[in-house]
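Lecture 7 notes: from sequence to structure.
We start with the chain below.
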Amino acid sequence: MRMSWSLIVWVGLLLAVTDACAQQQPCTSEQFVIGPVPSAQDLRTMVRRHLVRESCALLEQAAAKRQAAFDSGAWQAWRDGIRQSVRAALGEMKYGADAPPLNVRAVSRHDLKGCVVENVTFESLPGWEVNASAFLPDAGAFPPPWPGIVVPVGHSGKQMADYQIPAQFFARCGYAAVTFDPPGMAGEKQGGNDNFNDGVRCYLTGHSSNRYFVIDALRCVDYLATRSDVDMRRGVGMTGVSGGGTTTMFAALLDDRITVAGPACCAVPNACHPIMDVYAPCAETLAWKRFADGYDDVDLLAAALPTPVLLMAGARDEVFKVDWSNLIAASVTECFKKTQLPGRFRYFADAGGHGYSVAMADEFVHWMDRWIRNTPDREVPEFSKDAFELADPALLQCRPRLDVNMFTVNRDLAAVLRGRRSGLAVRDAAKMLTKVADTAGVPTVRQGEKTLVWFHYLEELMVQPEAGIELPATFLYPSREGWKGGAVLYFDDRGRWSDLRRQGPLTAVTHFTERDTDGPAVLTVDLRGWGDTASADMPYDLAGWADRSRWTAYVSAAAGDPILAMRIRDGLAALAWLRGRREIDPARIVVGGYGMGGVVALHVAAIDGRVAGAFSTAGLASFESLATAESYAWSHEDFLPGVLLHYDLPELVSALPMPVLLANPLDAVKKPLEAAAAAKLYPQRAGLTVAVEKSAAEAKEELIRFVAGMLRK
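Predicted structure tokens for the same chain:
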């Protein structure tokens, strides 16, 4: 039987395929390789671990400088440097001889058991009133004038036992004690004084919100100096617990009239708390560049020299653990010894917890007797806690003005800075704030399996911009052999796949289902802390005031390397790698992003200066809005410290040398700007498109047109 050549060919092919199938191994689960590139660490703790390493390294450097200063005998120059750094961080404050009028207003006077309380208000900043309660001795038992003590309140209210009882104790031992509410907290100064939500705004204007706690305490010294019944000849004492103790430590470095200090339950090595324990701290305790400038809590205590310091702790303190307090006390003791002034530091650990006990008040009175009264052997009355009656909170009310507060003062400062920038070029200022080196290297990148998806290849990557940091990324590019073209570099604070999945805007830009598409390629990256690298919750995140973004924002700011600055450097590293891919035309790269990813993209474009175009979708419209709006919805990680000293986002956009698209920019509460507001905010210039009041579909089409126009050959 004769067979046709065509039949012979078909039979041969069938036999060949059958033989191949017989030899081919079946697919097994072990061969599964699609998906993100495995990381070398737990990405959920990566950012926190990086910040712990960075902060601890800075604190170790600070410790080395401190030890060298005391070992060499040059401690006074070291001390002066610490005090200068503290002053610079707090911003302008006028007190003492340079102070404006206090404008004291008497409110009420009440007799209490063994003492008298006078309530007054006075100004610490123009229009900002302190609601002070002065607990005064019985003039019959202790004829005036009396030495004075300032008792700053922590994260509480002056009506609480931790402040009333010590103040009454001091008065019944012959001291005039003045206490007052801090901004916000549980006292009278509510509204615009939230130390978290309003405190973080102060980073934008380049100063610490601690200014508003410390200036009140310093102006209390001014107030005592106005009273004829207070003896200021040997200065005043200052003591407080928790946040009041922190205020005491800072104030003692700034005012020589504070000649005795007694911080309680507030000072431990910062590496222990709030770094290693990942405790959500307060913005006022972590000034911008605090760790970079080299002052740990031990530095604050040692820099008080020659002021006598009584450090107090609670053996059962739940937050400032006594073991940590013991460590810092040992370090400060060594510093004082090396100055030949060892008797000016004392450490007292009470048996109680986180609070100001009667035993602490007794210790501080003896400390005051030694250094202020010069009567170290004076017999002090013995009081138990039951010997004191708490005054009704209504008796201590002063009804201070509330229209001037932390928010309004910082808001007004932001408005002033709008017309008084540093004069530094925007690009140079952005590089400085984000710590970008002039020569950025290409990051190490590990690549996953290449997968054909219709007419594109998709590769999952792991970008390593620096040691200990891994950034998952997704790279999508045409599969046509020999293809070379443009690319979009994309950042999204919701995660790198958010605008890829389900034919999202980023996928639509590539035309990936079209056989003859010319791209562009897309590289979308999870910058640190976003997407797959979002931080896991930690034990102290149980607290009502806690938030992962707060710890990250405040600790990174204190390290002098804000998390937003890190993300901008991550973006620049991704751009350097993308430029080196053989498929990509380096002259045809557009950088963009969604949300804060858009803000990162604009900074990458400004600092790099060579991309073909830049865009931001639903990005923050201006940093100033975060300082001036009554409320905001953005993360604390989005506040770039010091930015308003140099520029705002509209000025950054105006300085970009390439075409820019801003699609639906958002205000402080993440509401899209209306056309009139956008026109007022962004100066018109060639190449700038501000697309407002667009639907999601319209914004998507706007983006497709913009990218196509930027990458057209």
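Points to note: The chain has 22 helices and 19 strands. The domain at 104-417 is CATH 3.40.50.1820 (Rossmann fold).
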